[in-house]
């Protein structure tokens, strides 16, 4: 009897050791879990990274935390019902890149519903922790081309140009303190400055270090990005595979709808000349949305601004900036784009409603796009502290202080814009913007 007991004990210990060896293999452990919207409101994309292959990429999700928890503990043998989506991982082939990116699409989700999820692979048990997200408001009978016109209030955090350096740690801490209030984050390019410091290891390493720090944010709300010059210097494909935006590998522009607002992401790192692919796409996207919803909010974002007034070359004299103003600016005016968000210069700036360098209307009756620059969360290059004088007539507020911005869409007619300084956590600038109808 003792021998039988001893044999059983040995078996249990052996199984325990095997499980722990597998569980302790960090090379297949999912890292940098991120959420992203697609153009369809009933979908969500979940992406992550592993150093080594672990079969197909899997996401298991449920509306109930206890269901998912018991399912993961029992290795899905209990008859507990969770939903699973899968995809093939993508390998990096460059000699300065390593690992696999995983991008899995969840579809047929319900509106305004919280889902709990874990990610992993098919070969060995190596789940992430349990995360959760909440879907947006939408009518299950509509399609992606017929999004909600009614606004459901929401709150987003906005910044560009964030990477390891002066100000960065405090901005990340500040952001994490406030995360309960946000429904999404917009990082408008230059994500971690992956071309600095560790290029010999590949810029995936720099992105991974950055995204590990941000995982409590990126796994909770969609982390929507647009490429900056420090993101695509090496490989646009690497950027696209890492961040899982609803765009193709060589066309990084995209749009989506959220709670009654149309968002459009423009790549300032791709050609914006008239009649280029991107220009034609922007025109078609704005035209289609305006035909569908003539009075709805449109918020655009890109890495490079075309209204900014620091002494940096980009703001003072670059011909590319003037080209964007001429091409994108006229489309924004024609299709009534309400707000444009950007970074690139490391300062904060808010304009009056403006078109062709002239103020058009005011914040109560905007006749042109209001431009915001938020290049202030901190990075290796520091802040741009010198501004052009005299202050341009279109510049309403500008300063160089570490922090980030938040945007609250209240309803169909009002948006509250605020800049939050890191020091003392004070609101250093704010403005109500009323929905404008451009002539
Ligand atoms: Fe930049």
Q: Would you mind describing this structure in some detail?
A:
This protein folds into two domains: 26-134, Purple acid phosphatase-like, N-terminal (Immunoglobulin-like); 154-434, Purple Acid Phosphatase, chain A, domain 2 (4-Layer Sandwich). Helix 7 packs parallel to helix 9 (319-334). It is globular and about 70 Å long. The chain is of the alpha+beta class and 439 residues long. The chain has helices at 2-23, 65-73, 168-177, 203-218, 229-232, 236-243, 277-292, 313-316, 319-334; strands spanning 31-36, 44-50, 57-62, 83-87, 90-91, 100-106, 114-121, 131-134, 154-159, 184-187, 223-225, 254-258, 261-265, 298-301, 339-342, 348-351, 354-355, 358-359, 370-374, 395-399, 403-409, 414-421, 427-434. The N and C termini lie far apart (91 Å). It is 24% helix and 27% strand. The strands form five sheets. Strands 12-13-14-15-19-16-20 form a seven-stranded mixed β-sheet, covered by helices on one side. A six-stranded mixed β-sheet has the order 11-10-9-21-22-23. Strands 1-2-6-5 form a four-stranded antiparallel β-sheet. Bound molecules: fe (ii) ion. Fe (ii) ion binds next to helix 5.
At a glance:
Helix content is 24%, strand content 27%. The chain is α+β, with helices and mostly antiparallel strands and 439 residues long. Strand 21 and strand 22 (414-421) form a beta hairpin.
Bound molecules: fe (ii) ion
User: Roughly how much helix do the residues carry, as a percent range?
Assistant: 10-25%
Question: What's the structural domain tally?
Answer: 2
Strands in their spatial order, largest beta sheet: 12-13-14-15-19-16-20
Provide the β-strand percentage band: 25-35%
DSSP summary: helix tally: 9
Ranges where pLDDT stays below 50 over 5 or more residues in a row are 16-23
Structural class, by secondary structure, is alpha+beta
Report the average pLDDT across residues.
90
The largest pleated sheet is described as: 7 strands, mixed
Distance between the amino and carboxyl termini: 91 Å
- The name of the CATH topology of the largest domain is Purple Acid Phosphatase, chain A, domain 2
Provide the CATH superfamily of the largest domain.
Metallo-dependent phosphatases
CATH architecture of the largest domain: 4-Layer Sandwich
CATH class of the largest domain: Alpha Beta
């Amino acid at each position: 009897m003792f021998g039988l007991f001893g044999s059983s004990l040995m078996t249990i210990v052996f199984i325990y050791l095997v499980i722990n060896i597998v569980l302790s293999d960090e090379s297949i452990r999912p890292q940098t879990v991120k959420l992203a919207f697609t153009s369809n409101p009933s979908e969500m994309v979940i992406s992550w990274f592993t150093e080594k292959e672990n079969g197909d990429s899997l996401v298991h999700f449920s509306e109930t935390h206890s269901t998912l928890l018991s399912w993961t503990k029992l290795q899905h043998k209990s008859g507990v019902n969770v939903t699973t989506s899968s995809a093939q991982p993508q390998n990096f082939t460059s000699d300065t890149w390593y690992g696999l990116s995983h991008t899995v699409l969840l579809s047929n989700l319900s509106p305004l519903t919280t889902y709990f999820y874990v990610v992993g692979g098919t070969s060995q048990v190596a789940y992430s922790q349990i995360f959760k997200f909440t879907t947006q408001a939408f009518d299950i009978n509509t399609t992606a081309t017929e999004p909600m016109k009614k606004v459901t209030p929401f709150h987003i955090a906005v910044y560009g140009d964030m990477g390891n350096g002066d100000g960065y740690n405090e901005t990340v801490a500040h952001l994490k303190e406030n995360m309960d209030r946000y429904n999404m984050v917009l990082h408008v390019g230059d994500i971690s400055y992956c071309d600095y410091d560790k290029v010999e290891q590949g810029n995936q390493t720099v992105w991974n270090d950055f995204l590990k720090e941000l995982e409590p944010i990126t796994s909770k709300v969609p982390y929507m990005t647009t490429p900056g010059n420090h993101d695509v210097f090496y490989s646009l494909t690497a950027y696209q595979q890492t961040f899982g935006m609803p765009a193709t590998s060589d066309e990084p522009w995209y749009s989506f709808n959220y709670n009654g607002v149309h968002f459009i992401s423009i790549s300032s790192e791709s050609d914006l000349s008239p009649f280029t692919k991107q220009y034609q796409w922007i025109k078609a996207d704005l035209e289609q949305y305006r035909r569908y919803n003539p009075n709805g909010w449109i918020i655009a974002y890109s890495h490079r601004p075309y209204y900014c007034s620091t002494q940096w070359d980009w703001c003072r004299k670059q011909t590319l900036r003037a080209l964007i103003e001429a091409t994108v600016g006229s489309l924004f005016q024609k299709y009534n784009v309400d707000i444009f968000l950007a970074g690139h210069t490391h300062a904060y700036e808010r304009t009056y409603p403006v078109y062709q360098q002239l103020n058009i209307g005011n914040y109560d009756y905007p006749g042109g796009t209001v431009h915001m620059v938020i290049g202030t969360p901190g990075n290796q290059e520091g802040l741009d502290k010198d501004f052009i004088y005299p202050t341009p007539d279109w510049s309403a507020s500008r300063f160089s202080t570490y922090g980030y911005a938040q945007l609250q869409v209240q309803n169909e007619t009002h948006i509250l814009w605020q800049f939050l300084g890191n020091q003392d956590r004070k609101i250093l600038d704010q403005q109500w913007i009323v929905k404008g109808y451009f002539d």
